[in-house]
Amino acid sequence: MKKIVLGFFSHPDDAEFACAGTLSLLKKEGWKIHIATMTPGDKGSAKFRVKEISRIRKKEAAESAKLLDGTYHCLGFDDIYIFYDRETINETTALIRKIRPAIVFTASPNDYMADHEMTAKIVQTACFSAGIKNMEVDEELYEPVPYLYYSDPFEAKDIFGSVINPSVYIDITTEIAIKEKMLSCHKSQRDWLLAHHKIDEYILTMKSFAEKRGKEINKLYAEGFRQHLGHGFPQNNILKEALSNMVIIKDIGIL
Prior knowledge:
alpha/beta
C-alpha cells in the first residue's frame, strides 16, 4: 500500500468538519491527500438553483483540498437521494480502485442525516469490494482492503440522542489553523446553515467541537474516529503507526 489517504463523505465541507486536521498531519508525514463527496451539495442553498450551487460548492471543495496539495473528486449524485444501490456502490468502488488509498475516512454510520449514514454503508462496501473480480467495475482490482475509519457524528450523538464516543483520538492542536482555513473555503455554506438550521458562526461551531474532543484527552483540539474492525478489514491501527505522537486510543467496548 502506498501512502495515500481518502476522505470520502456525503457533501462538500463534511471532510473539513470531520477529519481535515488528521489529513493535514498525514500530509506532513508524506501522505497524498484525496477528498471525495457523493454529491456536490446541490440542495445546500436558499439562494442559488441546483446547477449554480453545485458549481460553486465543487469549486470551494477543490480550493479547500488544494490547501493540502490534495485532489477533490465528486461522484455527482444528488443531496438527500444517496441510495445504497447498484450504481452508487459501483461508482464508489471504481473511485476507490482508481485512487488506491491505504486509509479511508468516512461519515458515521449513526448520524442526524440519512445521507451520512448511507455514505458510511456505501463506502464500507466499496472498500470491501475493491478487490472483488466480478464487480461491475472497469477499474483495475485493488487489494488489500483499505483501513476504514468512521468520523464523529454531528454533536457526537445518534438520532436518539445517545452519545457516540470515539475509540481513536487524534491531537490536531497544531493543525487547527489549517482546518479553519479549509472550512473557510466553503463560503456558500454559512448563509445556508443560518437560513436552514439557524446556525451561525460556522467556524466557531467546528472549533468548539474540536475543543470538546481535545479536552477529553487533555489537549487543546482533537478529532475522533472509530475503526471498522469487521471481518476482512485490517485489524491493526495504522493511524497509531503513522501518527504515533498524535494518537490516543480509548477502550469504549463493543461498538
